[in-house]
């Protein structure tokens, strides 16, 4: 009986030992798997994530878990998860005017920062700009005839009354960007009478036709519903690339470009992988894809551009006061809404 009990004890110890070894191996494997992971929050388009993320995975061997949602929703998640972050990096949706909660992100400057266009570098240490987008005018070449359009002033042509597509700045971010661009280009700042007088004249020429969203603007021009539209470069360039009967006019008075940025989430569990992700998105390989295959303007000095994009040096660039615009957005929108209502 004693021999039987002793044998049972030996077997039990052996099984516990084997179990512990198995558990240890399993834990080790899980840790290895976790080290090879990156969790990405992104509001970016399917074109961007479906093109760039597989390239990153192939190059690094790191498996990406993507969570797609709107910028506002993702920022709320990051804030609510700050004691125990789920994601490692925010891919897009960020720029200086939206970064009101810098404490949610880690400082990191990419090894490629020196290769980015001056004025579009990671100065603060948190945001890494990787693409930029600007306001422009989109023209239907089948409908424009001999009407000359080189900038904002030309949109006051009486022949264009009711034929201009524009989005409501109160409900469209691109519509608001166009409004602040016009105020800066035509008045020199956001409060001058000269700038607002121009906006009033343009409102009259819109003839009450204002879209709630940006999609209706560029689509309306491409489909021939409108002769001209106030929109932005990304969708405009996509129509050019795909052969639609449209052309882009960069306002001779100047265009504002706003960057989209990446940032590492504070206390990210896979910080090193997040750093590799940022380095990849600012690499020449990725930046060339943005400029040639996609329609997002890359920010590397040596990035290649397709025929659907005009080099930045050929565009008159205006610098927006992003701090002022952020603090006074409601005031600017309300002034526009009051003016629009008054002129109907």
From TrEMBL:
Pfam families: SBP_bac_11. It comes from the Bacteria. Residues 1-22 form the signal peptide. GO terms for molecular function: thiamine binding; thiamine pyrophosphate binding. PANTHER family: ABC TRANSPORTER SUBSTRATE-BINDING PROTEIN, THIAMINE-BINDING PERIPLASMIC PROTEIN-RELATED. The lineage of its organism: Bacteria, Bacillati, Bacillota, Bacilli, Lactobacillales. The keyword Lyase does not apply. The gene is sip11. Coiled coil: none annotated. GO terms for cellular component: outer membrane-bounded periplasmic space. The keyword Phosphoprotein does not apply. SUPFAM superfamilies: Periplasmic binding protein-like II (SSF53850). This is Bacterial extracellular solute-binding family protein. One of its GO terms (biological process) is thiamine transport. Keywords: Signal.
């Amino acid at each position: 009986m004693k021999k039987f009990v002793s044998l049972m004890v030996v077997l039990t110890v052996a099984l516990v030992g084997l179990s512990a070894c198995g558990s240890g191996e399993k834990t080790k494997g899980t840790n290895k798997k976790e080290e090879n992971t990156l969790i990405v929050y992104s509001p970016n388009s399917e074109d961007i994530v479906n093109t760039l993320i597989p390239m990153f995975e192939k190059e690094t061997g790191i498996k990406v878990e993507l969570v797609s949602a709107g910028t506002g929703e993702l920022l709320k998640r990051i804030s609510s998860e700050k004691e125990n972050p789920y994601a490692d990096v925010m891919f897009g949706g960020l720029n200086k005017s939206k970064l009101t909660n810098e404490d949610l992100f880690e400082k990191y400057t990419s090894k490629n920062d020196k290769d980015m266009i001056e004025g579009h570098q990671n100065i603060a240490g948190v945001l890494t700009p990787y693409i930029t987008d600007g306001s422009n005018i989109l023209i239907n070449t089948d409908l424009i005839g001999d009407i000359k359009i080189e900038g904002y002033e030309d949109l006051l042509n009486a022949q264009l009354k009711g034929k201009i597509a524009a989005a409501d700045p109160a409900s469209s971010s691109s519509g608001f960007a166009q409004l602040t661009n016009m105020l800066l280009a035509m008045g020199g700042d956001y409060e001058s009478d000269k700038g607002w007088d121009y906006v009033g004249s343009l409102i009259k020429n819109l003839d009450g036709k204002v879209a709630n969203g940006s999609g209706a603007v560029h689509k309306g021009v491409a489909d021939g519903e409108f002769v001209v539209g106030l929109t932005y470069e990304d969708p405009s360039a996509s129509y050019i690339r795909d052969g639609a009967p449209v052309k882009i006019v960069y306002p001779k008075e100047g265009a504002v470009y706003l960057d989209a940025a990446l940032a590492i989430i504070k206390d990210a569990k896979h910080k090193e992988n997040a750093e590799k992700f940022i380095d990849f998105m600012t690499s020449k390989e990725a930046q060339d894809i943005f400029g040639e295959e996609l329609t997002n303007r890359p920010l590397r000095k040596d990035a290649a551009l397709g025929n659907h994009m005009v080099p930045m040096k050929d565009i008159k660039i205006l610098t927006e006061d992003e701090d002022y615009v952020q603090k006074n957005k409601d005031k600017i929108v309300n002034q526009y809404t009051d003016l629009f209502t008054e002129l109907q």
